[in-house]
Amino acid sequence: MQAFTTNHWCYLRGHPPHCSAVLKSTPSDFQVTEIPSYELSGEGEHIYLWLEKENLNTAFVAEQLARFCKLPLRAVTYAGRKDKFALTYQYFGIHSPGNKQYEWQKFSLEGVKILSARRHNKKLRTGSLKGNRFTITLRNISAPEELESALKYVKQHGVPNYFGEQRFGNNNSNLSLAQKMIEGETIRNRNKRSMCISAMRSWLFNEFVSQRIAKELYNSPVEGDLMILSGNNSFFKYKHEDVTIKNRLLCNDIQISAPMWGTGTLASAGEIYELESNLARQFQSVSSQLEALGLKQERRAIHLQPQNMSWSINNEQAKIEFELSSGCYATSVLRECVITTPISTQSRNEHNENTAE
C-alpha cells in the first residue's frame, strides 16, 4: 500500500527554517496578480474579464459567470486556479460569438468585482500566463532575523520547484483520493478525479526532486541529465564536455529537469536514468497507475528562481513580494524561509462573520 506523505521532502539548506509565522490571517495577506503573456486585441469572439476575487473558489466563480451569461460552463475558462482564501486578480474568458453585450455591472457575487471587460480573438486557455505576482504578509514572526537571512538566501539561490500544498488538497485530501484510485476505486466526479490524478503525478515529481537533493545532485548536472529551456518544454541531453552549461544555469537560461511520469521511455541516460528508473520502481503503484491513465512522459524544471523579489520586515510582521512563472507555487518559496501556520477554519469563519457585519 502506498503511503502518500508530504512532510519528508528535503530542504535546499538541509533543514527546516528556524522561523515560524502566521500565514493568511486574512485573504488580503495572500495576494496574487496574474501576469498575462499577450496583449488583448480588443476584438474577437472571446471576452476577457479582469476581476478581483476574494475568498472564493475559481471554479465556483466560473459557474456563476456561466449562469449570468446563460452559457454552458465549457464557455467559461480561466488561465489557472487560484487559492480560495486569498485576494486574487485574474482573467476569466467568456466564449461569446457575435456582438452580444452584457451588463457586467449587474453581475452580483459577494467577493467578486469585475474591473474590466475586453474582447480578444483567442480562447483563454489553462496555463496561458507569463506568471503571477505575489504579495504575501506574514504575521507573528518568531525570529525576524532568521527570516531575513532565509529570504536573502532564496533570492540568491532559489528554491526546489516542488508542487505546493494546494496541489495535494486540505489535509492531503487529493492524495487520499489517489490512494483509493490505486486500490481500484472509481472516482466518478470528473473534477475530483482530475485533481487526484494531478496530485499523484505531482507527488512523484516532488519525490524525484527531493532525492536529487539528498544525493547532492541538485545544483550540478551530470552526463545524461535532460536540460529544459526556461520558458518552454524543449529539452536536450547534457554532455559532460559542454562547458557553457554552468553559465547558462547561473543565468537561468536552462534548468535541470525531472520526470512528470507517464507512458514512454525515459529520455535521460546514465546515472540519472538509473536514479529515475529506480525511484519509479520504488513507487511502482504510482508510476504504473499514471501509465495506465495514458499520461505521457514529460519534464519539469527542478529549480525555481523567484523574480523581482523584495521584502520589508517590521518587528513581527513582514511583507514579501516576488514573481513566479506559471505553474509554480509561492508556498514552495515560503517553505524554504518560514514554517507557516494558517489560522483555523473556525477562526476564519469568525473573521468572515465579523467582517460581514
TrEMBL record:
Its EC number is 5.4.99.27. The keyword rRNA processing does not apply. One of its GO terms (biological process) is tRNA pseudouridine synthesis. It catalyses: uridine(13) in tRNA = pseudouridine(13) in tRNA. Residues 158-304 form the TRUD domain. GO terms for molecular function: RNA binding; tRNA pseudouridine(13) synthase activity. It comes from the Bacteria. One of its GO terms (cellular component) is cytosol. The active site is at 83 (nucleophile). PROSITE patterns: TRUD, UPF0024. Responsible for synthesis of pseudouridine from uracil-13 in transfer RNAs. NCBIfam families: tRNA_TruD_broad. Belongs to the pseudouridine synthase TruD family. This is tRNA pseudouridine synthase D. It comes from Neptunicella marina. The gene is truD.
